[in-house]
Amino acid sequence: MRVMKVKIWNEQGFTFLESIFQLMIFILFANISLLLIFWFREIITLEKMTEEVNWELFIYDLNQYNERTLTGKLNSSTSLQLELIDEADRYFIFDRSEFHIRKRSNLGGNEILLPYVDLWSLTVDGNELLVKVVMRDGTRRERRLVMPLADE
C-alpha cells in the first residue's frame, strides 16, 4: 500500500504552490537580469563620457601651456616641444609613450596627459597646429590650436 501511495504522489505532477514558487524564482532572475543590463549600459556611457572629458582636459592643458609659451617647435610628426617663459627656463616635450600622450620636462618628470591613445599625429600649417588622435576604441578626434611655433 505504501509503494502505491508514493507512486501516486510522483505521478500527480506539480502542485499549485510549487508552480507559484517557480514563477517567483523566474521573475526574480528576470528582474536581476534587467538590472544588470541597465547597469552595464550605464557603465558604457560613463566610460564614453570619461574619454570625452580626458580629451577636453588634454586640449585644455595644451592651451594652458600655450599661453605661457615663448616658442615652440615640432620635433617630429608625433613630438611637440614648447619652451615656457618662467624663471627656471623650462621646456616641455609632448610625445606618445606606449598608449599614452605624456608631457616630459627638461627638469625631470613625466606626466600622462591623455591615456589610451593608439595613434596621434601633429601637423603644422603656418602657426596653427593640427592635433589628430585615434583613441583605443577607434574614436578619431582632432583640434586646431594656434601656437607660437618657430619657423623651420
Can you walk me through this structure?
This protein is α+β, with helices and mostly antiparallel strands and 152 residues long. The protein is built from 2 helices and 8 strands; from the N terminus they run ααββββββββ. The chain has helices at residues 2-11, 16-67, and strands at residues 69-76, 79-84, 91-97, 100-105, 110-115, 117-125, 128-135, 140-146. The strands form 2 sheets. Strands 1-2-3-4-5 form a 5-stranded antiparallel sheet, with helices on one face. It has a 3-stranded antiparallel sheet with strand order 6-7-8, covered by helices on one side. The longest helix has 52 residues, at 16-67. It is rod-shaped and about 90 Å long.
Describe how the helices and strands are arranged.
Layout: H1 2-11, H2 16-67, E1 69-76, E2 79-84, E3 91-97, E4 100-105, E5 110-115, E6 117-125, E7 128-135, E8 140-146
Antiparallel strand pairs: 1-2, 2-3, 3-4, 4-5, 6-7, 7-8
* Shape category: rod-shaped
Query: Which segments are poorly predicted (pLDDT under 50) over 5 or more consecutive residues?
Result: none
User: How many runs of DSSP E, i.e. beta strands?
Assistant: 8
Assess the beta-strand content as a share of residues: 35-45%
Round the mean pLDDT to the nearest integer and report it: 82
Question: What characterizes the major β-sheet?
Answer: 5 strands, antiparallel
